[in-house]
Batch of 2 targets.
Target 1
Amino acid sequence: MSKGVQGNFAAQVRVFAHDAVSLNPLSNNQIAGTSDRGVCLYIGGQGNVEVKMEGSSTPVVFKNVSAGTFLPILVTHVLSTNTTATEILALY
């Protein structure tokens, strides 16, 4: 059973966020609440986004992400080193 999935929908993945937290200012620390599962991201201001994804400790840079983009990836960290995007929200 997937984490957070209940009732008759146990075989389906959750597709809607139930909470959002601003990651501004950025920290290289693990995002709160991501020890078991990563969070998706909303990017409010265009730029690059460097992350550590749920399944790997190797950083990945998503380049030139447009403002207003929802990134359907599961991340545990947004790193300040190569991130130029702004107004980033963690979606739980």
Note: Residues 17-91 form one domain.
Target 2
Amino acid sequence: MRFKPGRKIFAFAALFAMCTTALSQTAAFDVSQMDTSVQACDNFYQYAVGNWLKKTEIPAAYPAWGGFMILGVHNRELSRDILEAARKSTAPKGSDQQLIGDYYAACMDESGI
């Protein structure tokens, strides 16, 4: 099997882009989500996430909504953006980006399927 460093570089670049984007948009712990009007010993759940519950509306397309759902949706959107960019790119024939773009385009071709 022939070693193709381009595949590893493209995979690393895609992973790096996802990680840096996710990390730059989120805080480790956001105290503004807490409802400090409630005593923690009386109702810890309301104390910990009360303001988030008041401000957040569950999207109609989802049965539940929370941090992991938000992360999952964000990751799917980011992955789709990477695949769309690969599909639209003019990468050299046989390169990883061209192969990924062609594969994605073939999967999205509903009339051809």
Note: The CA atoms of residues 21 and 78 lie 9 Å apart.
